[in-house]
Amino acid sequence: MRHSGFSYRVSMLLTILAAVMISGWSNRAFAQESKTTWDRQQEIQAPSKPKPRRTRRPTRKIVKRGNVSVERAPLLTVQYRLLKYKENGPPAELPAQAVVHPGDLLRLSVTPNQDGFLYIVQQFEDEDGHIIFPDSRVNDGHNFVTKDKEFVLPPPGCGVADPTACWYKVTASAKPEFFIVVFSRDQISDLPNQAALSGGVIKKEVIAEYTAEHPEKNYKISFRDPKAKMNFQGGVNALWITNINTKDNEEIVAKFPLVKGQ
Could you tell me where the DSSP H helices lie in 102-248? Predict the structure, then answer.
């Protein structure tokens, strides 16, 4: 029996919710969002001084209102997509928590709604993580990113003849595996900000510290509104992750499980 479009999307949201709970988030509001979530300016509080281990961007327009520092900016949001290799034709955009299998070839796509600093880590449970962004082949190796610019990893142009080599191959490991997306208004000093300085590894203790600092109540996950006219790629399976806490809107730390079948 075929599902109606509405029933299918509700079912897919519930599937995503169940998977995201594995990574430490619980029952957040899932909805379909309009373009205004992406662009709408609103007043947010900003620390009078940068958080520890952060370097503030000089372009941030922070003003004092009494004893409170504020700025007008959209709520931090990133779009997350999971792409699967197809031998003939363009990649398929999968639901973020689609079941994948050993040997499948994948790419991640992340697009920010404003300028900031992007960090992406691949991690197996209870192990150190591997830095996949910044990447020396993307953005000149830097992790300062600009609004509406899509970053695809591994990058399509990876300098080899075999087209399948420019993809992440799903492993047969039974350990839970995650992709962790960190997007920050300010540069974070104890995460790598240039590919040449990353060393390729981030300690599991550092990952645990950052994920613990960002409780699930700070976030809303929503589908991209297919009617929204955006300047970047993304279909009905693209997810928007928004930090909805106006009193601490400095970062997004989103941990996505890779759901593996046999």
Answer: 195-198, 204-212
pLDDT tens, residue by residue, 188-233? 998 888 876 555 888 999 999 988 888 888 999 999 877 778 888 8
Residue 11 vs residue 87, higher pLDDT:
87
How far from chain centre, in Å, is Cα 52? 22
d(CA 82, CA 94): 5
- What per-residue confidence (pLDDT) applies to 172? 94
The verdict on residue 23 lying in a domain is yes
β-pairing verdict for 129-133 and 144-145: unpaired
Spatial separation of the C-alpha atoms in residues 221 and 32, rounded to whole Å: 9
Q: Is the dihedral of CA 43, 114, 182, 82 positive or negative?
A: positive
Residue 32 inside a domain? The answer is yes
